[in-house]
UniProtKB/TrEMBL annotation:
Pfam families: Bax1-I. The lineage of its organism: Eukaryota, Viridiplantae, Streptophyta, Embryophyta, Tracheophyta. GO terms for cellular component: membrane. It is a multi-pass membrane protein. This is BI1-like protein. It comes from the Eukaryota. It is found in: Membrane. Keywords: Membrane, Transmembrane, Transmembrane helix. Belongs to the BI1 family. The chain crosses the membrane at residues 41-69, 75-96, 103-122, 128-150, 162-183, 189-209. Its main location: membrane.
Length: 248
């Protein structure tokens, strides 16, 4: 009983130090603890993605929801603004309370629902086949980049150096997005923006997966899950915008 109680408060007490720590050279603790953490994060991300698919499908297939958001009324405009702002509003307490169980999971679920509505609205004007193509391409890219990062980490490669470059690229992307909103650039602008965004968020997938393997502490599973989830969602939306621009 005492041992189980200790495990519930201290994850390291649940696993004895194990040989083979050089399997991933930059791991800060035993492989058992790190792999348990990695599995936990990927389960959370998978559940987030399934919830996103369900909510986005409801937005696109429930006629009343689609008709409401397509209508150019004051109420629909307010709803659009609320959908855009809601994830940012929820993210603040979610980050502050990320280590407070179970409120962290409740806020994570609420954040995922808010993001899911945003994804659903981005798919509202796209053809169904384009959405499926974007989802399939996103899956292939995510699986490929994740496998590559684990392979590279096992051989001692480190991707921490990508951090400053990705931050700078994100700032440039935000500036480009604002310019695109103020001065519509047409299909070409959308295509360029989508390609740049896809490259940036592909880099984030490598960077955040590398952090998942080596740097996040065991109780930072909420932050790790949020980062990977947002990388995947943003990559999907970037690919979707590229395919829409090509489709014309």
């Amino acid at each position: 009983m005492g041992k189980h109680g200790k495990c519930s408060h201290d994850a390291e007490a649940c696993y004895p130090p194990a040989p083979g720590g050089d399997m991933y050279p930059y791991m800060m603790e035993s492989p058992q603890i790190r792999w348990a953490f990695i599995r936990k994060v990927y389960v959370i991300v998978l559940l987030q993605l399934l919830l996103t698919v369900a909510v986005a499908a409801a937005v696109n297939h429930v006629a009343a929801i689609g008709a409401f958001f397509r209508s150019r009324t004051l109420a629909s405009l307010g709803a659009w603004i609320a959908v855009v702002l809601a994830p940012f509003v929820v993210m603040i307490p979610m980050i502050c309370l990320r280590k407070r169980h179970p409120i962290n999971l409740v806020l994570l679920t609420l954040f995922t629902i808010c993001m899911s509505f945003s994804v659903g609205l981005s798919c509202l004007t796209a053809k169904g086949v384009i959405v499926l193509e974007a989802a399939a391409m996103t899956l292939v890219v995510v699986v490929g980049l994740t496998a590559y990062t684990f392979w590279a980490a096992k051989r001692g490669h480190d991707f921490e150096f990508l951090g400053p470059f990705l931050v700078a690229a994100s700032l440039i992307l935000i500036v480009f997005l604002v310019m695109r909103m103020l001065f519509p650039m047409g299909k070409t602008g959308t295509l360029v923006y989508g390609c740049i965004a896809a490259l940036i968020f592909s880099g984030f997938i490598i960077y955040d997966t590398d952090n998942l393997i080596k740097r996040f502490s065991y109780d930072e599973y909420i932050v790790a899950a949020i980062e990977l989830y947002l990388d995947i969602i943003n990559l999907f939306q970037a690919i979707l915008s590229v395919l829409e621009a090509i489709d014309g």
